[in-house]
């Protein structure tokens, strides 16, 4: 059995039984306890499971109120939000492209769609097809580094001529934000983010 298959089995058992000792998981999977610890490490890091006094259990699901960003917990009143729709049809609201791109990176395999608003046109566009402008002189007082989204390269370039910045595509924007965050798991907001 591959590590991913063992992790899936562990999650099934935890979903059915609540919690399990590592020794019991080791016995059921016919692997060493050290292998179980290696298998569950990514699940612990992603907050899918949590350690208990008797072993491990599924982590409690924390849903933010619907009027706050599901990444930074800032109130949703920004004019350029992002929505993530997961494979199980859950919708996450994010305050800005900065939080949307970071959240997408955290749950990429679970994402069915990611949509955003064109900064100038205020129309809905696919975030994967959008152009991203960073480092502009235009300050929206939101999460840093600030990111603006556009549906048209021509309009992005026109805005760039007036307000500066660098133009990036979807994957480049994610990579640039992560690089600038220097390994930090949140944003410039003072709120604690959800996992």
UniProtKB/TrEMBL annotation:
<keyword id="KW-0804">Transcription</keyword>
<dbReference type="InterPro" id="IPR008719">
    <property type="entry name" value="N2O_reductase_NosL"/>
</dbReference>
<dbReference type="Pfam" id="PF08220">
    <property type="entry name" value="HTH_DeoR"/>
</dbReference>
<protein>
    <recommendedName>
        <fullName>HTH deoR-type domain-containing protein</fullName>
    </recommendedName>
</protein>
<dbReference type="InterPro" id="IPR036390">
    <property type="entry name" value="WH_DNA-bd_sf"/>
</dbReference>
<keyword id="KW-0805">Transcription regulation</keyword>
<dbReference type="InterPro" id="IPR001034">
    <property type="entry name" value="DeoR_HTH"/>
</dbReference>
<dbReference type="GO" id="GO:0003700">
    <property type="term" value="F:DNA-binding transcription factor activity"/>
</dbReference>
<dbReference type="InterPro" id="IPR036388">
    <property type="entry name" value="WH-like_DNA-bd_sf"/>
</dbReference>
<feature type="domain" description="HTH deoR-type">
    <location>
        <begin position="3"/>
        <end position="58"/>
    </location>
</feature>
């Amino acid at each position: 059995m591959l590590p991913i298959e063992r992790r899936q089995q562990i999650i099934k058992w935890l979903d059915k039984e609540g919690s399990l000792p590592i020794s019991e998981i080791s016995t059921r999977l016919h692997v060493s306890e050290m292998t179980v610890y290696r298998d569950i490490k990514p699940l612990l890091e992603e907050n899918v499971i949590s350690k208990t006094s008797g072993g491990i259990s599924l982590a409690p699901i924390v849903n933010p109120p619907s009027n706050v960003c599901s990444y930074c917990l800032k109130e949703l009143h920004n004019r350029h939000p992002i929505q993530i729709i997961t494979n199980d049809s859950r919708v996450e609201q994010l305050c800005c492209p900065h939080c949307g791109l970071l959240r997408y990176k955290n749950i990429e395999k679970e994402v069915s769609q990611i949509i955003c608003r064109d900064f100038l046109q205020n129309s809905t566009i696919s975030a994967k097809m959008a152009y991203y402008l960073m480092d502009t002189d235009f300050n929206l007082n939101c999460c840093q580094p600030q990111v603006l989204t556009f549906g048209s390269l021509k309009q992005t370039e026109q805005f760039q001529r007036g307000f500066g910045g660098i133009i990036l595509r979807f994957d480049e924007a994610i990579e640039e934000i992560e690089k600038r965050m220097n390994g930090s798991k949140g944003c410039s907001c003072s709120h604690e983010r959800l996992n």
